[in-house]
Write a structure and sequence with these properties.
With 123 residues, the protein is mainly α. The protein has a single domain, classed as Four Helix Bundle (Hemerythrin (Met), subunit A) (Up-down Bundle), CATH 1.20.120. Helices cover 74% and strands 0% of the residues.
Length: 123
């Protein structure tokens, strides 16, 4: 195991936050409020730290690819927010499970985008 980097790349932090979201969503006694709070923090971090990263050193092609992935990450985070809202409102266990499954798929997609940005093999 490697020691943590003193200043991790913003995408690494986003990846860690997405992994934390997955862990929260998979808890048997899910606290939807905790999930929504963690998701809001992840969305805020993405907006303030990842999207504002300087891409001027990258080639135009690479910068465009990163921007495209950022657009997809933003869309995925917004959809996760909607899923969390619907999960919070869900009354039936089957509906809650469906929302959790959908959220898990979206979190996996988010982790895949992070892996691509970091040059890692997908999970």
């Amino acid at each position: 195991m490697q020691p943590p980097e003193p200043n991790p790349h913003p995408t690494q932090v986003l990846q860690q936050q997405a992994q934390a979201l997955r862990a929260i969503a998979q808890q048997p006694d899910l606290d939807v409020t905790q999930l929504r709070t963690a998701l809001a923090a992840t969305q805020h971090y993405f907006q303030t730290q990842v999207l504002t990263a300087d891409l001027s050193a990258a080639s135009p092609l690479a910068a465009n690819q990163v921007r495209s992935i950022h657009t997809e990450i933003n869309r995925t985070l917004r959809l996760l927010g909607m899923d969390a809202m619907f999960l919070y409102a869900a009354k039936k266990s089957a509906t809650q499970q469906q929302r959790l499954t959908q959220m898990g798929d979206r979190i996996d997609t988010l982790l895949g985008f992070c892996a691509v940005l970091l040059g890692q093999p997908p999970e």
